[in-house]
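Today's session is about reading a structure prediction critically. Students often jump straight to the picture, but the first step is always the sequence itself: look for stretches that repeat, for charged clusters, for runs of hydrophobic residues. Only then move on to the predicted structure, which in these notes is written as discrete structure tokens rather than atom positions. Here is the chain we will use throughout the hour.
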Amino acid sequence: MSLLELKDLRKIYKQGKVEVEALRGIDLEVKVGEFTSIYGPSGSGKTTLLNMIGALDKPTSGLIKINGNNLKEMNNKEYALLRRRHIGFIFQSYNLIPVLSAYENVSFALKIAKQSSKDVSKEKVYQLLKQVGLEGLENRRPAELSGGQKQRVAVARALIKEPKLILADEPTANLDSKTSHEVMQVMLKMNKDLNTTFVFSTHDSLVMDYARRLLGLHDGLITKDEKRDGKKVD
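Below is the predicted structure for this chain, in token form.
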């Protein structure tokens, strides 16, 4: 069953009189439960593609369907509901709320998705923070955390509402190899247990080693599509 479908997806940015074609006609189908990594050089269109899929930006032309819903037919409110309830994001720049603690940043994602009772949410948040290696740091604000710790909070925030689709832009960019492995194991376990679909953008060979599908992107086009075994949950 397909979760994601793209047809002739194009994105053109205008800089004065100059047009920059970031995506030049992407055709892609991602099935439910895939663990997919998009790789390519800087400027190849990886982040732009994730933004299109995640309803953070709109394409110049082409089709995007998520879970059978045509994004072109949705209004801004429906876009927001789709992101809030069904898509989890892991941003390279964290995008944490600075005045909230690690615990509050993660629990806030549940609140806006309107999921779980207060008691269940509390237990779930603490358990997930422990899984990503943040036990004992739940009350620290982002300014009191290292770059790697902030990224773990961002990962936990994306995972907490158990969305159908998680989009991750360079999820291990600020992590050491040991932490990267631990975080990827958490995501792989969620993929296995809940059949959550993951799409990563990365330069990291460790992330690519975990992926069961590798998509090569170059100059706004998919140039390689490789199925593989990937790593297993430890």
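Discussion point for the tutorial: The mean pLDDT is 90.
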